[in-house]
Amino acid sequence: MKIIFAGTPDFALPTLQALINSPHKICAVYTQPDRPSGRGKKLTQTPVKKFALDHNLPLYQPATLKDENAQKQMQDLHADALVNVAYGLLLPKAVLKATKFGCINIHPSLLPRWRGAAPIQRTIMAQDTITGVTIMQMDIGLDTGDIYKQETLPVTNTDSTATLLKKTSKIGAKLLLEVLNEIEAGTAKATPQSNEQTTYASKISKEEGKIDWNKNAQEIDCMIRAFNPWPVAYTEINGDYLRIWEAKALESNQETHEPGKIIKSDKDGIMVATGNGILSLLKIQLPGGKPLPTNAILNAHQQKFAVGQKFS
Questions:
Q1: What is the DSSP secondary-structure string of 86-106?
Q2: Mean pLDDT, range 170-190, rounded to an integer
Q3: pLDDT in tens, 197-215
Q4: Cis bond leading into 112, ω under 30°?
Q5: How many CB atoms are located within 10 Å of the residue 71 CB?
Q6: Is 30 helix (H, G, I), strand (E, B) or coil?
Q7: Taking 70 as the threshold, does the pLDDT of residue 216 lie above it?
């Protein structure tokens, strides 16, 4: 099949690589425009752009696909299908119909659960124990299209968004090839979604990353894992912002401590009281520093994290 690929982040790369290794032909790669990034606001290429250039793939970076010229340019490719993997731009109706078999999407959840922009983060925050990947036929709705295939995946109590992105990207690449082969053979079957168990994964904001120590330890642990690698959960101590990359919820004991207060600080971590239970901070980042294991930071900052100090 002749394929247009549309994607932007690292999550899209396993699928792009799988398509290159397959009998299908990539006739174009679409990715978002270069944007300012970092402290210097230097224009930065997307991971998909870098990959496409390295593999000499035809590249397109329209600012929008609502423009009629951009739509005609895509139609003139005469592709069989458009594969969308976290492209990040709205696909108008004209684009959805620009290829013979329409637009096939990889979504990292078990639709209709967690439709929307942040399915993996919301999965972890909701303490779901099962997630998965859905291959669907896109329509004009928000992740409402008919489902071709799904595969389930357990969510462990150590999974973060970073780890689940890796796992689901590999599953998605495999399932997509299976679906494309079935479409080509005329054996593919797409099933309409049920709307009875729909949940929405709204976009994550930096503001959501601030820890509320009145919540229980398990909730805060899930939030920390959900916000790794972005925007990273944070708290404040003695006027400094502290980013928390990894923690562990401990069993609650009978003692009552003020939420946010450090009750123990040693080589095993920084133990912080929550609204219910204790949270052990395992990997943290000071302003201007790198993420490090807590014991490495304690060596030079014992007083800052002494017992009795309080996060806010």
A1: S--S---HHHHTSSTT-EEEE
A2: 98
A3: 899 999 999 999 999 999 9
A4: yes
A5: 18
A6: strand
A7: yes
pLDDT the model gives residue 252: 67
Contact predicate 277/217, CB 8 Å = yes
CB proximity list for 214: less than 8 A, separation 6 or greater: 259, 274, 275
DSSP string across 97-137: TSSTT-EEEEESS-TTTTEES-HHHHHHHTT-SEEEEEEEE
Predicted pLDDT at 300: 86
Count of residues in the chain = 312
Contact 307, 272 (CB under 8 A): no
The reported pLDDT for the residue numbered 160 is 98
What is the phi-psi region of residue 202: left when phi exceeds 0, alpha when psi lies from -120 to 50, beta otherwise? beta
> Which candidate, 269, 266, 276, 214, places its Cα nearest to that of 247?
269
Task: Identify the burial level of 140 via C-beta atoms within 10 angstroms of its C-beta, where 0-12 means exposed, 13-18 middle and 19 or more buried.
Answer: exposed
Nearest to 199 by CA among 119, 114, 120: 114
pTM of the model: 0.95
Q: How far apart are CA 307 and CA 312, in angstroms?
A: 15
**Domains of the chain and CATH, by start:** 2-201 (3.40.50.170), 206-298 (3.10.25.10)
SS3 310: strand
On average, the pLDDT of the chain sits at: 95
What's at 24, amino acid-wise? Answer: H
Nearest one of 115, 112, 110 to 155, comparing CA atoms: 110
Residue 40 above 80 pLDDT?
A: no
**pLDDT tens digits for 246-285?**
999 997 666 788 999 999 998 888 999 999 999 999 999 9
Give the model's pLDDT for residue 60: 98
d(CA 19, CA 286): 41
